[in-house]
Amino acid sequence: MKIKVLGPGCKKCVTLEQATKKAVAELAIDAEVTKIEDMVQILSYGVMSTPALVIDEKVVMSGKVASISEIKEYIQKA
Amino acid sequence: MIKSIQLAKKNQLIWALLLLPVWYVLYINLQNFSDFIIDNLFHLTKGSHLTETLRFFIFETPKVLLLLVLVVFGVGILRSYFSPEKTRKALAGKSTFVGNIMAAILGIVTPFCSCSAIPLFLGFVEAGVPLGVTFSFLIAAPMVNEIALILLIGLFGWKTAVIYTLTGLIIAILAGWLIGVLKLEKYVQDWVFEVKTGQSDLDATKITFSKRIKVGLETVKDIVGKIWIYIVAGVAIGAAAHGYVPEDFMANLMGKSAWYSVPLSILIGIPMYSNAAGIIPIVSVLIEKGASLGTSLAFMMSVIGLSLPEIIILKKVLKMPLILAFVGIVGFGILCVGFIFNFIY
């Protein structure tokens, strides 16, 4: 599973990245978490409010910092 | 199982409704409460500098925070019906002027954080939202918002709040319209038009009402958690000035007889960066000490609406002439607001 955190590097984006890594660790799944800071790439997902969460190339959330339990839900649904 | 979930949701709603009268009782008793603490509990001498400073602080801080919680909660629910994606769709291909008006109004209700100004700008331009219309949105979004509105109602009364909101909207509409008429598209960085934005089918606005209440509560936690410190600091500075600074102290510097006070306070306001939460309590004291309404409004708009950090962020997508046009036009609009209100009042 490939998880991407989209965000230009503001505080919220860092918080979301950390929460996502925690969620992955707590679920003990094999997933790669990367952070995308390049604006052109962020826009290629059609995202206008950062931070956003992309799981296997699909945008599942944008515009807020999701809690760890919310992120877990997104991962399990994907 | 399903029944118990429905019951739980209903309970949530009832709790939320029960909190409203509690809020009201607290709010209307604040003056008595603060007087009680100052006069009966601490037995402070009435009218001394320290007493009046403390009275102001103990009364204003909970008042503004209570207002903030209520309105942010309401706006959080209202905002859950809007998203930048939806707004973009509504504005794409709109003619100028009508588009400018819509953009400025949508700027108030669409969730917006200045750190996503760039993706939002790119997303709008790429979807065919005219440049001027995009600017109307970008000017209105930070300047006219619920926090400014609450603080203005709380500290100045609803009339000033309405004046601020309307003039803020008019500046956003006219400035965006003018940028559109001047055809400044060539001063957008070239790479902007080459960006291809993808389509996301995510629609965050289709959720149940109980979810919206949850969103409202989360917004309160998020926003109040972030800005309460600015409000307390702002009110504290305001309280100190209320108690210690002599009346009419600001009359010479920021009063209406000094014509240069309006442009001067705009120039001072640009490099100052603060959100509405920090600056409004301070401005309320400036007015109390003799600053005129027009000058104070201009100062406030300049601090909130024109900020150096935002200009630096926009530099990524705009060339210098367009940035200067943006600052110049908005600055001129604020200048007019300042002069008009100094003239009327």
From TrEMBL, chain A:
Q: Catalytic residues per the record?
A: C10, C13
* Keyword Transmembrane helix listed: no
Instruction: Answer whether the UniProt record assigns the keyword Cell membrane to this protein.
Output: no
Question: What residues does the Thioredoxin-like fold domain cover?
Answer: 1-75
- Origin, by domain of life? Bacteria
The record lists its disulfide bonds as: C10-C13
* One Pfam family from the record: Thioredoxin_3
InterPro entries listed in its UniProt record: Thioredoxin-like_fold, Thioredoxin-like_sf, THIRX-like_proc
Give the keywords, sorted. Answer: Disulfide bond, Redox-active center
The name on file for this protein is Thioredoxin family protein
Which species? Ancylomarina longa
From TrEMBL, chain B:
| Predominant place of localization | membrane
Q: Does the keyword Membrane apply?
A: yes
GO CC annotations?
A: plasma membrane
Query: Keywords of this protein's UniProt record, alphabetized?
Result: Cell membrane, Membrane, Transmembrane, Transmembrane helix
How does it sit in the bilayer? Multi-pass membrane protein
User: One Pfam match, by short name?
Assistant: ArsP_1
- What's this protein's family per the entry? Belongs to the UPF0718 family.
Decide whether keyword Protease is in the record: no
Q: Where in the cell is it found?
A: Cell membrane
Native organism is: Ancylomarina longa
Recall the taxonomic lineage recorded for the source organism.
Bacteria, Pseudomonadati, Bacteroidota, Bacteroidia, Marinilabiliales
Name this polypeptide is given: Permease
Q: Which residues cross the membrane?
A: 12-30, 64-82, 103-125, 131-155, 162-182, 227-245, 266-287, 293-314, 321-344
